[in-house]
Write a structure and sequence with these properties.
Two copies of one chain form a homodimer. The first copy, chain A, is mainly α. In chain A, strands 1-2 form a two-stranded antiparallel sheet. In chain A, a hairpin with a 6-residue loop joins strand 1 and strand 2. Chain A is elongated, with a radius of gyration of 24 Å. Chains A and B meet through helix 3, helix 4, helix 5, helix 6 and helix 7 of A and helix 3, helix 4, helix 5 and helix 6 of B. The structure holds a DNA duplex. Chains A, B: GO terms for molecular function: DNA binding; DNA-binding transcription factor activity.
Amino acid sequence: MKVKEIAQAAGVNPDTVRFYTREGLLSPARNPDNNYQQYDADDLRRLRFARKARQLGFSLPEIRAILDQADDHHSPCPMVREVFEQRLAEVEREIAELQQLRERMTTALSAWREMPDGTPDGHTICRLIEHWDETAAATCHEE
Amino acid sequence: MKVKEIAQAAGVNPDTVRFYTREGLLSPARNPDNNYQQYDADDLRRLRFARKARQLGFSLPEIRAILDQADDHHSPCPMVREVFEQRLAEVEREIAELQQLRERMTTALSAWREMPDGTPDGHTICRLIEHWDETAAATCHEE
DNA sequence: TTTGACCTGTGAGTTGCTCACAGGTTTTAG
DNA sequence: CTAAAACCTGTGAGCAACTCACAGGTCAAA
């Protein structure tokens, strides 16, 4: 398989395939005639695995670690369980943060309906945002 | 105020102040003696505004647009309302995606409790992840 | 006066791609 | 048979919003 073929088979951008190859997640053979990359079924398996793992929130270094362990005939699954549970906790924290944010946004939006727009006067820039509750917002930071 | 002082007053990293200055959100005067940046109360107001707007999900270009409009004595608030509503919709979409993801993760986790770890055998890399439901996960992509 | 804490600008690193570029190869249409 | 289109190659830059590192200048206190 050439780059475009494996990319289509996995449903990703060919540049992603090239990128993963550069990053060492894929190690295709070479066609000695034209120096093209030659991917096989095992590469496709690895690529699909990597994409699934990405959807689960694994980072590329984590995925590479799992793949490397699999290459060494170690069972990577306990590691997967561990990282997975950490990732689940993170997802739940993100949900909680976003829900807090949403709540404050809808509250602010309904409060704003009664506020005049007001041209900036040198003391306020936009009172809609300046009246946002600072301490409440402080707990909601992106990372 | 010098960089560190305004940074402390707004509760941000001094490098963030420098970065915002480079990006044109802040335009401090200069001390002609030593070429140090000199921030005033208006800069602090702009900085605090920018941070609040960031917490609300505005991008730096958006914030700069608001600030520029305020400088020109236009009322930026209608623009704020508009971008804010877009942002709220986005937050709600993110929440929905993360909730879907969490659900699939907890489902997978409980399914995995009954699965053996299994050393990779050349056909599977880690069955924990390979048995993740592909089509279900396809609807949850990061952007 | 020397140490330490600050200041300056610039450039690189972060993450996971995506795109652009310049040049080589292969396929397809005329 | 040839020319154009579509592919391949590697490398390097761009995204967002910082954060950190570096080398050199400035200033306060001991």
